[in-house]
Each structure stands twice: as structure tokens, then as C-alpha cells.
Design brief:
Layout lengths: L66 H8 L12 E4 L4 E3 L4 E2 L4 E5 L2 E5 L7 H9 L1 E2 L7 H5 L6 E5 L6 E2 L1 H9 L3 E5 L1 H14 L5 E5 L9
Parallel strand pairs: 6-8, 7-9, 7-10
Antiparallel strand pairs: 1-2, 2-3, 4-5, 4-10
Organism: Ascodesmis nigricans
Pfam family, one: DUF498
GO biological process, one term: mitochondrial respiratory chain complex I assembly
Length: about 220
């Protein structure tokens, strides 16, 4: 049993035995509320050109915008640089690229990893062309896909341009590309070049590749 006279808790500090009178401060701070008036806005300058995005005032009509300006503002890819391997011109016997490279010797183009290579997959007036025009199916030699076997990383999509006409790619060639893990999109060379330019700008040049025959391939003389 604890004694009632013994306190349960002892204070951490004891007051001094000397009592001091409590002195109240004779100084009281006073605050004066000062009302501040908001200065009026400056008058509009006559030399300032209003923004074209500013809302019209009541009774005013906005001038019509040119359709060319409207579409240029909506073009979100206008500031994206064009890859050096983009195709500027599709010629009958060659190509002109955006980096200034050009040839007109009948060679096709293999656009891979933002680089351009001459691609002699099929000659004009060859047995491959005659068979393709007769059957509507383009069958190429196995050796033309050799670069895709050694390149790393391999592209996810290969755009195949079949020349002047849109031809089907043979089952043998499709199986070869599928075994390499590459998807393909087959169309005529003009549309294939435009498709490559668009996709290589939107996505990485490592993911998109193109194998283009010259535009004159399959063109009847």
C-alpha cells in the first residue's frame, strides 16, 4: 500500500520559494487596418497586335482562317525530323532519298535501320517479271532475304514494294519472313514508299524496314 502522503508523481522542477509579483506589460501593440485600392488596369496600347487565339468581343466577327493554316496547325508530325532513308522520289529505274542519295540503274532499295542499300532482287524483263505478270504472284530468290538473317535487331515490319502493280508475295517468301519473326505488308512500290516514310517517322527506324522494287518493274512496255 502506498502512503497517501507520498505523491505518485514528482514535478520535474520546483518553483522558487521566492514569490515574484506578476508584472503586466504596459505596452500593447496596435494595428491600423489600411485599405488598399486596386489600381485600374492600364489602357490598351494601340500598337499591340491582338492574339489570334483571343476571344472576339461582343458584336465582332473573327476573320476566316485559311484552310492551309488550319491543317498545318493540326499536323502534329510537322516538327519531327525526316529520317535520312526516307524516299523523296520513286523513279522508273531508281530512287531519290531525302539525304540526297540517288541511283537510276534499275536496282531496288532495301531500307533498313535508317540506312539505304541497293537491292537487286528482280530485273526488269526477266523470267521473274514475266511469271509475276502472268500469275499475279511475285516469287523472289532465297538469296534476296539474306541480309535479314544476319541483321540485329530484326525489324518488326517489312513493307514490300512490288513495282508498278500490287502483286501477291509467294507463299515461299512469306514463310521465309515469318520464320525470321518479321511481319510484312505488300503493295505497289509507290504506296510502299509512302507507307515507309510515314511509319519510320512515327516509330523507330529499327522497327520498320522496306524492300522496294523499282517502279518500272511489272510495267508493260
Amino acid at each position: 500500500m502506498l502512503s497517501r502522503s507520498a505523491p505518485l508523481f514528482r514535478p520535474l522542477c520546483t518553483r522558487s520559494a521566492v514569490s515574484r509579483p506578476i508584472v503586466q506589460s504596459a505596452f500593447v501593440r496596435s494595428y491600423k487596418v489600411v485599405s488598399r485600392k486596386t489600381p485600374p488596369p492600364p489602357p490598351p496600347s494601340e500598337n499591340v497586335t491582338p492574339s489570334r487565339n483571343a476571344l472576339p468581343k461582343d458584336g465582332e466577327s473573327t476573320p476566316p482562317q485559311s484552310p492551309a493554316n488550319v491543317f498545318s496547325e493540326l499536323d502534329v508530325m510537322s516538327g519531327v525530323p525526316t529520317p535520312g532513308s526516307a524516299v523523296e522520289t520513286v523513279a522508273e529505274n531508281g530512287f531519290v532519298l531525302s539525304n540526297g542519295t540517288r541511283w537510276n540503274d534499275g536496282s531496288g532499295a532495301m531500307l533498313l535501320h535508317n540506312e539505304a542499300f541497293k537491292w537487286r532482287a528482280a530485273e526488269r524483263s526477266s523470267e521473274i517479271e514475266h511469271k509475276a505478270l502472268k500469275t499475279g504472284i511475285l516469287e523472289l530468290p532465297d538469296t534476296v532475304w539474306g541480309i535479314l538473317e544476319v541483321i540485329h535487331p530484326k525489324p518488326e515490319l517489312l513493307i514490300v514494294g512490288t513495282g508498278n502493280k500490287s502483286l501477291m508475295l509467294s507463299v515461299k517468301d512469306r514463310n521465309r519472313l515469318t520464320e525470321l519473326g518479321i511481319r510484312m505488308d505488300v503493295m505497289d512500290t509507290s504506296n510502299a514508299a509512302a507507307q515507309y516514310n510515314l511509319l519510320s517517322t512515327e516509330r523507330s527506324g529499327m522497327e520498320i524496314a522496306a524492300a522496294l522494287l523499282v517502279y518500272g518493274f511489272g510495267k508493260r512496255k
